[in-house]
Structures are given as C-alpha cells and as structure tokens.
Amino acid sequence: GEYRKLTGDKTETVHTEHGCTFKVDPTRVYYSERYSSERERVISQIKPGERVLVMFAGVGPFAVMAAKQRDPEEVVAVEKNPVAADYLEENIEMNSVSDTVSSIKGDVREVMEDLGEFDRIIMPLPGAANRFLDLASEHLSSEGHIHYYRFVEGDYMEFIETELEELGLDLDAGEAYNAGEKSPSEDRVCFNLARK
Questions:
Q1: Taking the model in full, what pTM does it have?
Q2: pLDDT digit string (tens) for 57-114?
Q3: Where are any strands of DSSP class E within 82-165?
Q4: E strand spans, the chain
Q5: CB atoms near residue 99 (< 10 Å)
Q6: What is the chain's percent helix, strand, coil content, to nearest 5?
Q7: What are phi and psi of 86, to 5 degrees?
Q8: Torsion angle, CA of 102/108/112/115, rounded to 10 degrees?
Q9: How many CA atoms lie within 13 A of 111 on its CB side?
Q10: What does the DSSP assignment read for 23-37?
C-alpha cells in the first residue's frame, strides 16, 4: 500500500495479535492486521503433531501463531522477499518459537524438493497462489489440507471447481470462507482443499 508520514522518521513498528508480537515495516513489506481473525480461524484447525508449511510466509504471522497457539511437530515458513524474510527470522526469535519454526529464505519452487510432505499447507497469496497449487498438492500428505487463498468475483465453488479442472488437480474443493474484500465486487476467499 501507499503510506504518507504524518510525523517522525520511523516506519518500523511492533504489532501484537493473539499473544504474538510482530516487528514489521509496512512501507517495505506486506502486513495487514485486518486478517487477524482469519489467521486465528485457520490456525485453530491445526492438530497436535502436524507438519505445517506456510508458503509466502511474509513476516511470519501464520507460522508464529501456529507454533505458539497449537502443538505442531514442525512449522516450515518460506519467504522469497529478503526484507520480509529477515523480519520473519526476527519474529521467530522474538516469539521464542525457533524450536518449532524454521524459516527458509528463497523461492518456494526452488526449496520444496527436499522438504517432504505436510499435513497442512497455508497459501496466503491470493493474487498468485494458483501458480503454486501443483507444488502444494505434490507435498500434501494423504489426509492433509491446503488453505488456499484467491481473489474471487462471483460464485466461489464454481470458481474453484473450474480452477482445479484447468490446473488438472484431483483435489476436493471442500469449503470456502469469505476472508475479506479486495474490492466491492471481488472477495478474498480461503478454500480448504484436500485429497479426494
């Protein structure tokens, strides 16, 4: 987004949500506190012992919250933007979750090969997640779930069924949740995908 300074020189801040603390500079990386309740909704579904992958992890809200609020075996957070990746690493340390969360700085397509399967994959990049859904599907465990965000105009289920067919993926479209608006006609939707 665009920002205009009203006073002072600093743009870095510390934001707290659901017992977690995140250092972030919103003029350099994406972060929206508006999706706090949506993050909590997704995190609440993690079961003890799950391996969790957060693609496009940003400064770490999903990854850190997963480790602090649930009991996963492991959380792997991948972020390509070097500024966001540095904040991600700092936020992991600041929230004392380094024993559970590992961060990987790089392109998700280049780092996934050796990471194995995951029980839950979170894909919070609604504008481009479709370019990586094949990769997520390849690394999804047999009983796993993908939280797949997309911008949708019109009927949610028609959209996801068409997209899965076009991508040639044999996934169950599951449920769809409205996670906010991009514009008056376009919603940010989270689809809970699973193997058929």
A1: 0.94
A2: 999 999 999 999 999 999 999 999 999 999 999 999 999 999 999 999 999 999 999 9
A3: 101-105, 118-123, 140-152
A4: 13-17, 20-24, 51-54, 74-79, 101-105, 118-123, 140-152, 171-183, 186-195
A5: 9
A6: 30, 35, 35
A7: -65, -45
A8: 10
A9: 16
A10: EE-TTTS---GGGHH
